[in-house]
Amino acid sequence: MNRISPASSQGRLIGVWRICRRALHGMTFGAQSMIGATTPVDIRDRAVLLLLATTGIRNGELRAIRLQDIDWRAGEVFVRRTKGKRDRVAPLLEETGAALADYILRARPKVDSPYLFLSFTPPVGPFKCASPVSRIVRKRLRHGGVELGRVAGAHLLRHSLATQLVRQRRPINEVAHLLGHRASTQRRCT
């Protein structure tokens, strides 16, 4: 697969990443303090939350990430199997990268699987459906004191990122690009 973005797209991504870094500084600190890194499950869950919250990726996109999809030097995550059937690149902020590295080096089960996030429940392997990721998000947000409505999961973090960026008066096309939307005229996060 070709991971190289066109030059114009790369310039837009750099701008969006800088915006995200500023917008999410408080959110990443909150996630780190909300989840103590005492057990392998805690370490994994913190990495999951930070990756979802700082990139706006969907549940299915998170589950499809492979170890080889992280470009540590460039600070990017290659996102495959998107809703629009197009692969894209998402920013990997420093705090999120540190949480991912901590998970990979200290907590990820030692099994032969190309997928980044694995279940600790036997049989150990990648998450096969959306439910486990949604449960992680709900459990950790409730534990952090966040009141949740009836529907709350990974999509809530995606929506929160989009809302924060729009409130900061970021151009809608930058927000759409970060979230992987095709048309810059879309106003809703899906």
SSE layout and pairings?
Elements: H1 7-23, H2 25-34, H3 40-55, H4 59-64, E1 70-71, E2 76-79, E3 88-91, H5 94-107, E4 118-119, E5 125-126, H6 131-143, H7 154-167, H8 172-179
Antiparallel strand pairs: 1-2, 2-3, 4-5
Helix pairs in contact: 1-8, 2-3, 3-5, 3-7, 7-8
Describe the structure.
The model is unreliable at 1-29 (pLDDT under 50). Helices cover 52% and strands 7% of the residues. A 3-stranded antiparallel beta sheet has the order 1-2-3. The protein has a two-stranded antiparallel sheet with strand order 4-5. Strand 1 (70-71) and strand 2 (76-79) form a beta hairpin. The protein is mainly alpha-helical and 190 residues long.
Which descriptors apply to this entry?
8 helices, two-stranded antiparallel ribbon, 190 residues
Please sum up the structure shown.
This protein is mostly helical and 190 residues long.
Described by the principal axes of the CA atoms, the overall outline is globular
In whole angstroms, how far apart are the ends?
25 Å
Average pLDDT, all residues: 75
Q: Proportion of β residues?
A: 5-15%
Unreliable sequence segments: 1-29
What is the spatial order of strands in the main beta sheet?
A: 1-2-3
Question: How many strand units?
Answer: 5
Radius of gyration: 16 Å
Number of helices: 8
Relative helix content:
40-55%
Let me know the largest β-sheet.
3 strands, antiparallel
- Class computed from helices, strands and strand pairing: mainly alpha
Topology order in helix (H) and strand (E) letters: HHHHEEEHEEHHH
